[in-house]
């Protein structure tokens, strides 16, 4: 047999809707299994790079579990094979096979493309279920459910949609839990455990006795294996998401997190908590999300949460506002030596006495913004974190006023591979009147600073004395404007 | 990895590919724009669609394809930048303005676009057209939706079924 190396590269997102457990490649004699690709081969979105030194006929590519949906995956793969000279193919595969699954084709064999307007009657009804589900995903749940009366096809469609928006339907619509309770109860009960990808729950008016109901809803949503969850209501002690391994994205806005001891999930990739959330006044919430890639944390009220280590962190944007409760009357940067001081102490004893920075120390991109009164960052610096992966750092005036550059110097000296630093001074942006760029003078470069640091940007509204002080400090390090 | 004999080289000028609509019109576009389609991306990655060959799209007519490509060409640069990070607010606003106007179209065109976007798997366009249909549904009564979407008037049986469902789904109408 003429053996030949075969190589295909492609993104197998094409088979994402296919339910199959394995793919078999079968040899010429139709009996021998040439290669058995396990289920991992069929994973959604996986880059497929497979090599095999067998020759096979395309019509022998088949599944153990033949199903109609597999037909589409098969022809796509065949198409791929047909395009490549590197595959030995006994006959030409018609590229048209690629489009076999298109429902329109069956309807308009002679019609060449779009149907005449007269036939447009219920054109929407001719669209595949996943297209209609996609449409439903852009509707508030009330509107989505109400489509059930449109036509026979729509009666149960909403139940299998993978996206749910339990939100106020319009500006005047009800926003209280009580007003929508019956609706949401029916909604969740009738759609049952049908899988969810994305869910937004946003009802801001609730009372104490609504809590248990909301807790039930959120648990139900999590049981539907939701991947992206956006909440602006939160219940006490509800934030242990560890029993929902599918959850990857969590956005929390406008929520009372004051009784949440932990926000915990191993599967979480993106977490966002807005400044409208309230943490507890006394005890510190612990955020345990070791696989986080992206973190956005705006701490407005009460205690700054404690961040556990996040080794895969790519980017973090941290903002601490002045209503933050972490201040100590006796000291500027913590360490008041009073064990009962909530702000200076109260950190898990098995950690390195850092509230935020140790958890952020493995980030690649980092933005640290704080009002000057807040001492959490100053306090954290005492435990000497190092930012070994940091390439891009954005800081505000907190780090370099009032004419105290020790914190800024610390960050520069402990970020060994930093490439770019941006200082955003006395202005929140996003537009700035003044934007300056500095470069290093190689002869004056301070040895303590990353040799990779190429760009320093300073952005502000006006160059006043405070900004001039910062520029002077930078020039001492060998950074000057270009 | 592309087959070397495909001969349309990716150096210098942007690589072009040819797409052929159901009515045999040939469209030559930059590979980067056509690659917004997940379906085409596979073929293009493998060196297909160049030179005299072209990729036949037997289910997309030329009017729809030209509309689809208008979208792809506009969105290709932003997609190449990996989406938002490098785009300025101005660029984003411009794309948004383009998108809004783009779907301001006749319903039959919209449906053809939906099918084409679905089959070609152009993610951004799929969302754009789905959102457009959702906007046509939002806040309307069932009869209004039926009218807006061009459903034929319900037969008495259909009307009876609708009424029965309205009753059953009373909880969704409060």
From TrEMBL, chain A:
Taxonomy, superkingdom: Eukaryota
Membrane spanning stretches: none
Residue ranges of every copy of the F-box domain listed in the record: 121-167
InterPro entries for the chain: F-box-like_dom_sf, F-box_AtFBL13-like, F-box_dom, F-box_SCFL_complex_component
PROSITE patterns in the cross-refs: FBOX (PS50181)
Protein name: F-box domain-containing protein
Lineage: Eukaryota, Viridiplantae, Streptophyta, Embryophyta, Tracheophyta
UniProtKB/TrEMBL annotation, chain B:
Residue ranges of the TM segments: none
Pathway: Protein modification; protein ubiquitination
Classification via SMART domains: Skp1 (SM00512)
Domain named SKP1 component dimerisation: residues: 124-163
Keyword Coiled coil: no
Domain SKP1 component POZ as annotated: residue spans: 16-75
Keywords: Ubl conjugation pathway
SUPFAM superfamilies with a match to the protein in the record: POZ domain, Skp1 dimerisation domain-like
UniProt keyword Transport present: no
A single BP term in Gene Ontology: ubiquitin-dependent protein catabolic process
Gene3D superfamilies: Potassium Channel Kv1.1, Chain A
Pfam name, any one: Skp1
InterPro entries registered for this protein in UniProt: SKP1, SKP1-like, SKP1-like_dim_sf, SKP1/BTB/POZ_sf, Skp1_comp_dimer, Skp1_comp_POZ
Stated family: Belongs to the SKP1 family.
Record note on quaternary structure: Part of a SCF (SKP1-cullin-F-box) protein ligase complex.
Free-text function comment from the UniProt entry: Involved in ubiquitination and subsequent proteasomal degradation of target proteins. Together with CUL1, RBX1 and a F-box protein, it forms a SCF E3 ubiquitin ligase complex. The functional specificity of this complex depends on the type of F-box protein. In the SCF complex, it serves as an adapter that links the F-box protein to CUL1.
Record-given protein name: SKP1-like protein
Species of the source: Eleusine coracana subsp. coracana
Gene: ga14711
